[in-house]
Amino acid sequence: MKKPLLLLALFTLAQSRLPAQTRETILYARIWLDGKSMLDLENAGLEMDHGFYEPGQSFRSEFAASELSRVKTAGFRIDTLEADVVAKYLRENATMKPKRSMAGDRNTGPCDEYGTASATPANYTYGSMGGYYTYQEFLNVLDDMRAKFPHLISARQVVSPTILTHEGRPQWFVRISDQPDSDEAEPEALYTALHHAREPNSLTHLIYFMWHLLENYENDPELRYLVNNTELYFIPCLNPDGYIYNQTTNPDGGGFWRKNRRDNGDGTFGVDLNRNYSYNWGIGGSSGSPSSETYRGPAPFSEPETQMAKAFIEAHEFEIALNCHTSGNKLVHPWGYTNSVPTPDFTTLADWFTRESNYASGSCWQTLGYLANGTSDDWMYGEKNKFAFTPETGSGFWPGINSIDDNNKSMLLT
């Protein structure tokens, strides 16, 4: 029987003010290595934790024009595959129709023995931002889940009662369990999304998964067992300021802001939240330049978003976490900061998780050929002894509306 990637994790348990900035053209390009390494690309100032790496040959992804200019200056050969990704996305998305799949749909893979895996949840809706949710739409979905399934999901609650983002927003969490309003003595799992603001599909596939749990609890005994015997915590939008910034600049979708919205005081904005955790912070695989997409911040846990996540994780006993990202169809696990320390326990689990999928699994070095420090996964494992994985789903940061359903499902049918 096919095992869902998000469900398999459980088995291991038994509109804001906009500072004036110029929006750059985003290109889709292939960078040829020609004997150079991915570390050389990293040293040229490129953000590479999402994309498609052809070992020893090339790296393909979506890049800002300034990034490609730096790479070209460093001597790399570049093929431009799409000159304006956002314009192409808006043009094509205007003619696309959203997709919903029914149980047994052969285009999305076989259903499980209860006939549920291939069916888009009945309550799943598309958002108004090119099929993705606006921030308020996302909050409305959480409220709707509570209204429809109060016996399975908690009302949304603030992650921290004392910490807010730079623009004054909380993070929100919900708990799915058979006793959602009680903190029971059961194994706990954590799911997060939107460390990076330009990855809206990471939010939609968590929402999809949550509806899948809620709707199929009664008729799927395996799923019911999991919900009855674990507590599942979700923080679906870890970076609300960055997400709302993209919503405001690109209301039809296609916003490419990645970081949070810290005012760095030098005309630049933002810290890469997935370089701001404390484990081996700043040793390489991140940038000390505030203008960089991988700027790690002035100090470990300098950012309110990572401070909230830290306090929440330390207040719970999570045995596993999935920190969801896009894109590249990979399952990445520690270590990010080094390629010389093996993690065989992760390898065994990753092989299990991805045995029926096309996801590549491994460390950052194994899947993309470069290093990253200060990541959520490294901190959770290195300092808190928790298993933490990063699923990288889909192709591109803003897949068209007709791809959302299949990308959501890729996290279930693996």
Describe this structure in words.
The protein has 414 residues and is of the alpha/beta class. 29% of the residues lie in helices and 14% in strands. The strands form two sheets. Strands 5-6-8-7-9-12-10-11 form an eight-stranded mixed beta sheet, with helices on both faces. α10 links the parallel β10 and β11. It starts with a helix and ends with a helix.
Concise synopsis of the structure shown:
This protein is α/β, with parallel strands linked by helices.
Q: Tags for this entry?
A:
13 helices; alpha/beta; 12 strands; 414 residues; 4-stranded antiparallel beta sheet; 29% helix; 8-stranded mixed beta sheet
How many strands? 12
Coarse morphology? globular
Kindly report the spatial arrangement of strands forming the biggest sheet: 5-6-8-7-9-12-10-11
Number of distinct helices: 13
User: Which class do the helix and strand fractions yield?
Assistant: alpha/beta
State the share of residues found in helices, binned by percent.
25-40%
- Please mark out the parts with pLDDT under 50 across 5 or more consecutive residues, or reply none: 10-21, 106-116
Measured by DSSP, the beta-strand proportion falls in 5-15%
